[in-house]
Design a protein that fits this description.
single chain, 139 residues, mainly alpha
């Protein structure tokens, strides 16, 4: 193939990638806009208190998910699998942030708020920030 043909094919690939990127970003924007009225509806209609079933299964399951994400990050990192390590590191960071949020918000008004807040401030959130910061080194 000639050099001109290669450039045209490269241009088509770049155009295709840019089109997919733009569509993805547009979809995310539409979802974000659509989430605003849904969030307002939840704020107005959800009960202030709710009897939860399977509380233990929910939290133990969430912690198992965090263990799997952390282990996957470590294993991918040890095997020098950059992209999978970065993806699992970001997933782990998100899970840590979610865990901190739910631990603290669900402990409001209870004696457990202090332990939840301490774990969030001194362990979960710093680890999440560290993982996000280090992702560039994993790729």
């Amino acid at each position: 193939m000639t050099e001109v043909g290669e450039n045209r094919e490269d241009g088509e690939v770049v155009t295709s990638i840019e089109r997919r990127r733009r569509l993805t970003l547009e979809l995310l924007l539409v979802c974000a806009i659509g989430l605003v009225p849904w969030t307002a509806l939840l704020a107005l209609t959800l009960p202030a208190q709710y009897q939860v079933h399977e509380w233990r299964v929910t939290w133990v399951g969430f912690d198992i998910l965090m263990v799997v994400a952390m282990a996957a990050t470590a294993i991918f990192g040890l095997r020098r699998r950059g992209r999978p390590a970065a993806m699992s590191a970001l997933a782990t960071a998100v899970l840590l942030i979610c865990d901190a949020w739910f631990d603290v918000s669900l402990a409001f008004g209870t004696p457990g708020i202090w332990v939840s807040a301490a774990l969030a401030v001194f362990i979960e959130l710093p680890l999440a920030v560290f993982l996000v910061h280090r992702v560039h080194a994993l790729i």
